[in-house]
Design a protein that fits this description.
Number of helices: 6
Order of helices and strands: HEHEHHEEEEHHEE
Structural class: alpha/beta
Largest sheet: 6 strands, mixed
CATH class: Alpha Beta
CATH superfamily: P-loop containing nucleotide triphosphate hydrolases
Number of domains: 1
Strand order of the largest sheet: 2-5-1-6-7-8
Distance between the termini: 12 Å
Strand content: 15-25%
């Protein structure tokens, strides 16, 4: 599966390419992104990895907006202007190639935006995260991957990972339902992979 996706990306050319990996929470986006990055690097292409989680609004400002409800999480959690400026536009065809792969660390809340990485002319940027195909940033992807799992699988996996079922049922899943209804992200993708079983992903 990883080989198949990598070959489709290579077919796009040897210029800088941005790949977005989207799907419900705990669908396997980060793991798939790491595996894809390893495969592309083995082929000799420079790879940059980033996560949308590293471009969220800081918790110190949470009193300014609702980020606790599903609606609030979807509308307010991510800092899309900063993501565009620091990473997607800088990496893009008209950008300098000087990218920040992380704005604010979600665990430590330390701002790393001043740390820059130079993207080679043939680099592949792989970014994973929920809501990756929102209108605010969808135009920047050269290739879009959707990992399909059911809502129940998402909640079950997320609960095991985070030891918190409530946050998945009461915040993340409602936010993702808004996203699915408003954006219909699957229709925007280049490849959809059923990732319900990690050991047996299937092209859809």
């Amino acid at each position: 599966m990883v080989d198949h996706v990598a070959e489709r990306i290579f077919a796009l050319g040897d210029h800088r390419l941005a790949v977005g990996i989207d799907g419900l929470t705990a669908s396997g986006k980060t793991s798939f992104g790491h595996e894809l990055a390893e495969r592309i690097a083995r082929a000799g292409r420079p790879v940059l990895r980033a996560s949308l989680d590293d471009f969220k609004n800081p918790w110190r400002d949470r009193h300014l907006y609702d980020r606790e409800s599903g609606e609030g999480y979807y509308r307010n959690a991510f800092d899309y202007p900063r993501l565009r400026t620091l990473l997607l536009q800088a990496f893009g065809p008209s950008g300098s190639g000087e990218c920040s792969l992380c704005a604010i660390d979600p665990l430590t809340q330390i701002d790393h935006s001043a740390v820059r990485t130079t993207a080679a002319e043939d680099a592949v940027l792989i970014v994973d995260g929920v809501f990756a195909f929102r209108p605010e940033i969808n135009q920047y992807w050269d290739f879009r991957i959707w990992l399909e799992v059911s809502p129940e699988v998402s909640v079950c996996r997320g609960t095991v990972r985070d030891n918190d079922e409530a946050i998945h049922r009461d915040r993340y899943l409602p936010a993702e339902r808004i996203y699915l209804a408003e954006v219909q992200p699957v229709r925007l993708t280049d490849v959809v992979i059923d990732n319900s079983t990690f050991a047996n992903p299937l092209l859809m």
